[in-house]
């Protein structure tokens, strides 16, 4: 085929041949680039299973985009009458894969040529681990990791090749009669037995490759197939020290764990192995000593030595991040729950949130809020995609395994630009040491990102919130349900926070959590503020008695002062205090922005909500409040655009639909307003939420009968104890009955309806704004002098 042109590829030379194909170097004449073309051998053209496996390789590898994985460009086919008796579809043609051309040698060739120094072994191993990590994150198991499938480029970059046997998550298992997929000497025991495999099988194969890189010998061998299988299933490889001197004990432990016969005793995820390899890398780098000759050395040699040392530091020390401000940004993803019980999900989520909270205490770091990352739980998105969406340079992810009094935490800090590991570590500790683990992780991240850590910040990070681990776990459960933000889940969180306080009556965070729940419950339940806000205030004050640095407690007090007591100065002071204590607390910026909007300070309100949006870019409620602030400013077209952007994140987010409906109503686009407000009603079900807006739109549209029906429904809700007085007033205002509107507004004032805070800033009250009684009501609330 040399010299031939197939499709738009000119064949230049043959690179190699294996059981699954022949590989040629070629020129892509369209894109003017050198590529590698892997052809399915002609004699396999009639074998449907082999063809399917060939296509499967392209599908598996094309789903991956990582530095340490050979990229797949496309799969094509061409008519070859000499070998394919039928044509038409791709399946009826001789097929080939267009993939990245990698100049270099396979690891297999390299191992035959020379003995690798341990530092080079670990560097190659870490790059293999990075590539496997990327594949496993996408649910792809390679199933044929071996030296011949690993390329080393001329720049010492590792590329994992040949995904022909890969198993895609959710795909059917490819089988072949009387044979086992993979290469025997590197198979896991379960793979050799023909059992179902997962990422732990790749880890075993990786361990076998690592053993061979260190010793120059295969871990499992035999004179025939049955002997190799027996070795895989029953024999333990010779210790590394038999073939290599000065092997660190930690490296022996890594190999032993990766090659465990029992997959449950192996590394469960490759990032755990990465963390241990990093420690080996540190120890090897730290043990390097240099000697100098006593004779004079020319200055050029000295400079060369400095350059070599710099290169060594770059290669063998953990990657650090540039110190520019935009690099000091991080999102802490929900940690994986590796515990035996799915009910422990609250624990893994809670550990991640606590680490995020610790990091948010560092003013020099931008930390995405917990609500901003919850949507990535169980997400298939890559770290790079997540980093772009959240606007961060780094991502922390990890796993938690919790059993009795023991806890195991794996954490890894990842560069979002290329998904390389900056730092990784694992912790096997008693539950009583959980807070020291979180503190250590937070401080390590600050160090790796070169963030300035003030003494006061360090003190807060190292502070132990409770000595009672039972109380801590109950607190985590409370916060787990608080994050769900439904009326029923908030009720559950109240129960758990109360139990945590019973276990430890000095637990400030539990009081603050309970205060936060009562502070927002009226909004989600529709019940009256007077039932919950006094309790929220009392609990927040108790939290501050126990911990005067609680930003959460100050934020709740700001909410109570503003929404319930109409103490605008007091509310602002508490919000400012919360933000000073924790500049990364998105909720404090969000609530303070609303406060500023209520009092008519729209420029400041927009500034605060933009800060909240930067800290929590995917928060539905914060993105909606950006639109509400535009609307209060009178910039309704910008508000509409913002609400539509929010609805792209979640088309069923009721708050955004509600405010979009209000703006359409203001613009006399009544039919559109009614459509959006009906959507709200279909989402919330049997709660009064959205009814007043729909009634107002009906009234403005001249549909009086429909508006009166809405009023009847609201009256029923009022008799059931729901806080709807201001809503009834709003519908009456649309109907032009101002006397009734102010009658119900007076009732809302006596009930301390939190919605009255918004009367000065929200345009929906424009029907009443010219009436002197409206100004008098604003004076009573403190919004006018």
Can you describe this structure?
With about 775 residues, the chain is α+β, with helices and mostly antiparallel strands. It is built from 31 helices and 17 strands. The protein has five domains: about 5-100, 2-Layer Sandwich (Phosphorylase Kinase, domain 1); about 105-285, Transferase(Phosphotransferase) domain 1 (Transferase(Phosphotransferase), domain 1, Orthogonal Bundle), CATH 1.10.510; about 325-465, 3-Layer(aba) Sandwich (Rossmann fold); about 485-585, Serine Threonine Protein Phosphatase 5, Tetratricopeptide repeat (Alpha Horseshoe), CATH 1.25.40.10; about 650-785, Serine Threonine Protein Phosphatase 5, Tetratricopeptide repeat, CATH 1.25.40. The strands form four sheets. The protein has a six-stranded antiparallel β-sheet with strand order 1-2-3-4-6-5, covered by helices on one side. Residues about 80-90, about 170-180 and about 285-325 have low confidence and may be disordered.
Give a nutshell description of this structure.
The protein is α+β, with helices and mostly antiparallel strands and 785 residues long. The strands form 4 sheets. A 6-stranded antiparallel sheet has the order 1-2-3-4-6-5, with helices on one face.
Distance linking N and C termini: 90 Å
Can you tell me the CATH topology of the largest domain?
A: Transferase(Phosphotransferase), domain 1
Low-confidence stretches are 81-91, 168-180, 287-325
Can you say what the CATH homologous superfamily of the largest domain is?
A: Transferase(Phosphotransferase) domain 1
User: What's the rounded overall pLDDT mean?
Assistant: 84
Which CATH architecture of the largest domain? Orthogonal Bundle
Percentage of residues in helical conformation: 40-55%
Strand content: 5-15%
| Contiguous helical run count | 31
Tell me the number of structural domains: 5
Morphology call:
elongated
Could you say which structural class the secondary elements and strand pairing correspond to? alpha+beta
Number of extended strands: 17
Give the neighbour order of strands across the main sheet: 1-2-3-4-6-5
Q: Could you name the CATH class of the largest domain?
A: Mainly Alpha
């Amino acid at each position: 085929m040399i010299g031939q042109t197939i499709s738009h590829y000119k064949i230049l030379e043959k690179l190699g041949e294996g059981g699954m194909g022949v590989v040629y170097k070629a020129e892509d004449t369209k894109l003017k680039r050198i590529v590698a073309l892997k052809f399915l051998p002609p004699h396999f053209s009639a074998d449907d299973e082999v063809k399917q496996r060939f296509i499967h390789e392209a599908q598996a590898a094309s789903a991956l985009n990582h530095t340490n994985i050979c990229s797949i460009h496309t799969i094509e086919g061409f008519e070859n009458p000499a070998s394919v008796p039928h044509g038409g579809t791709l399946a009826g043609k001789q097929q080939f894969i267009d993939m990245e051309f990698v100049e270099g040698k396979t690891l297999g060739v390299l191992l035959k040529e020379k003995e690798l120094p341990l530092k080079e072994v670990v560097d190659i191993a870490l790059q293999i681990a990075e590539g496997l990590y990327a594949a496993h994150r996408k649910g792809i198991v390679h199933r044929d990791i071996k030296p011949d499938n690993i390329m080393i480029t001329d720049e010492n970059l590792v590329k994992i090749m040949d995904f022909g046997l890969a198993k895609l998550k959710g795909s059917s298992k490819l089988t072949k009669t009387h044979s086992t997929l993979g290469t025997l000497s590197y198979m896991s025991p379960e793979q050799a037995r023909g059992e179902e495999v997962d990422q732990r099988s790749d880890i075993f194969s990786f361990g076998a490759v690592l053993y061979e890189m260190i010793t120059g010998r295969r871990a499992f061998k035999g004179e025939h197939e049955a002997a190799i299988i027996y070795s895989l299933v029953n024999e333990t490889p010779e210790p590394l020290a038999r073939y290599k001197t000065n092997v660190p004990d930690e490296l022996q432990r890594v190999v032993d764990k990766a090659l465990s016969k029992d997959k449950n005793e192996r590394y469960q995820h490759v990032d755990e192995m990465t963390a241990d390899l990093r420690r080996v890398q540190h120890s090897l780098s730290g043990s390097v000593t240099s000697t100098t000759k006593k004779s004079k050395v020319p200055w050029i040699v000295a400079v060369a030595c400095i350059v070599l040392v710099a290169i060594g530091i770059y290669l063998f020390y953990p990657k650090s991040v540039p110190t520019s401000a935009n690099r000091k940004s991080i999102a802490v993803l929900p940690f994986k729950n590796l515990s035996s019980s799915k009910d422990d999900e609250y624990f893994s989520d809670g550990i991640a949130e606590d680490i995020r909270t610790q990091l948010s205490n560092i003013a020099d770091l931008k930390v995405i809020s917990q609500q901003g990352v919850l949507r990535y739980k169980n997400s298939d998105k890559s770290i790079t995609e997540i980093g772009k969406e959240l606007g961060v340079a780094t991502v922390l992810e990890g796993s938690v395994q919790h059993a009795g009094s023991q806890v195991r935490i794996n954490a890894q800090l990842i560069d979002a630009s290329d998904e390389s590991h900056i730092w990784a570590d694992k912790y096997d500790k008693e539950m009583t040491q959980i807070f020291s683990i979180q503190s250590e992780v937070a401080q390590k991240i600050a160090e790796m990102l070169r963030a300035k850590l003030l003494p006061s910040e360090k003190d807060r990070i190292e502070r132990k919130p409770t000595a009672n681990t039972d109380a801590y776990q109950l607190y985590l459960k409370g916060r787990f349900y608080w994050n769900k933000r439904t009326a029923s889940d908030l009720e559950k969180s109240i129960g758990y926070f109360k139990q945590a306080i019973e276990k430890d009556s000095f637990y400030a965070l539990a009081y603050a959590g309970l205060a936060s729940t009562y502070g927002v419950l009226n909004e989600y339940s529709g019940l009256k503020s007077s039932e919950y806000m006094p309790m929220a205030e009392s609990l927040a004050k108790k939290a501050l008695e126990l911990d005067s640095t609680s930003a959460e407690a100050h934020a709740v007090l700001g909410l109570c002062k503003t929404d319930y007591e109409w103490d605008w100065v007091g509310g602002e002071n508490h919000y400012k205090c919360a933000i000073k204590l924790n500049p990364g607390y998105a909720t404090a910026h969000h609530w303070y922005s609303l406060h500023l909007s209520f009092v008519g300070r729209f420029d400041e309100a927009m500034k605060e909500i933009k800060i909240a949006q930067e800290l929590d870019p995917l928060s539905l409620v914060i993105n909606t409040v950006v639109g509400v602030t535009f609307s209060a400013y009178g910039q309704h077209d910008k508000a509409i655009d913002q609400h539509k952007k929010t609805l792209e994140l979640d088309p069923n987010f009721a708050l955004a639909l509600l405010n979009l409906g209000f703006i359409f109503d203001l613009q006399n686009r009544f039919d559109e307003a009614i459509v959006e407000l009906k959507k709200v009603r279909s989402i919330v079900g049997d709660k009064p939420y959205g009814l007043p807006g729909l009634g107002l739109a009906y009234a403005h549209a001249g549909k009086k009968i429909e508006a009166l029906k809405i009023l009847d429904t609201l009256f029923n809700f009022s008799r059931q104890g729901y806080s709807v007085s201001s809503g009834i007033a709003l519908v009456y205002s649309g109907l032009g009955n101002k006397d009734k509107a102010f009658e119900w507004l007076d009732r809302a004032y006596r009930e301390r309806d939190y919605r009255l805070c918004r009367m000065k800033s929200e345009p929906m009250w424009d029907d009443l704004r010219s009436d002197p009684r409206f100004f008098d009501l604003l004076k009573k609330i403190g919004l006018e002098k």
